[in-house]
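As a warm-up, study this chain.
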Amino acid sequence: MKHVNIFKWISFLDGLYFTTIVTSLYAVHVGMGLSDVVLAQAIYSTTVFLMEIPTGIVADKFGKKASMILGFTSGIVGVFIFLLNPMVLTLFAMRVFQATGNALNSGAREALLYDITAPLKLNFKKVWGSVLSISIFGQALTGVVAGITLAIWGAAAFVPLFIATNLMQLGAAVLTTFIPEGRTNTDEVAQNKKAWVLLRESFSLFRRNTVLFALAAVGFLTVANEYFLYQTYGPFLSEHAVSLFWVGAVFTIGLLLNALIVRNVYRLEQYLTLEKILALINFTIAAAYLGLGLIHNGTALVVATIILIGFANTEQPVVSDYANKQISSDIRATVLSGMSLITRLSKLALTFLVGAVMVGADPVIGFLIHAFYITIGMCIGWWLLVRCGCVRKVDHTTGQIPGVNP
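Now compare it with the structure written out below.
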């Protein structure tokens, strides 16, 4: 439990990422255009997408702990490059380093935590949900702290907030050194495997394991696409006479709700099977998107936005528990990165589709497209989950889904 508690502190420090809020503000302050900021974000998204599988292989071959430390370090380097000479090219470079760091951390952190909790016979859904919720709470706190700091000191607070981000990342990297690798005999074998062998074995597992295929497919078909929401809800709410206070408050309230749900979503498995849990979450998200598209009352729009942010990705602990029980430790990070890649592909495709349709149009059409996509996707996902037998609960005495072979 000591190492699990260290993981929670790592997650909290990683959530305190102030540059998420101040990067665009600082870029405009030093003379860059909003188009440069948007292009930098596109570079970030593309880099994360391209780096998911390579960084998963790095984690399996050289160690998940090493991958995490390298991930935090990459983000620190990116921020320093930008601060030393704030210009468009260094902004792009920072985004590449941050995206690479994100990818190095994404599959490795989950895989390492699972390797630590499995021998202790801990409920991984509960532990992972707790770790994720603490990170989300950190993100919510980030918004409050950055807002107060900027309100008091104005533009003078930009650089200190960048430095504070790096200090938090450095603290997370240092704490990671105290986490045992949790390496097994199969991990030692993985070190000696060629990268292409790890990749081949991971894709082979996807092809033959119906549980992983179904979970990956559902992830592709039901993305909440919260990044699209973050880029559009502010101006949209303002146009409907919602005060600027509530435009800012919905983000913090939504993230706090998200942290609460993620922390406790494992409890639903006492009452519901997997497909019902996913349906409850995704149909709620679809209904919130539909509400944003059809409702014109400011208060109702605020509630719908809070629900959307609050329910986005809350299925992760449950899905992760099902997935990890199907994966051997030697290819765990690569497979998890592959599943993340599939979800990111869906987000990119959906964002470009909506962006193309929305040119010169109201964001309402984007909200309605998301509502339709998630609803249809969850219906298809329900069929896939029932077909693969994933609707049965995990037997925690054996760590498997009854009737399903890994």
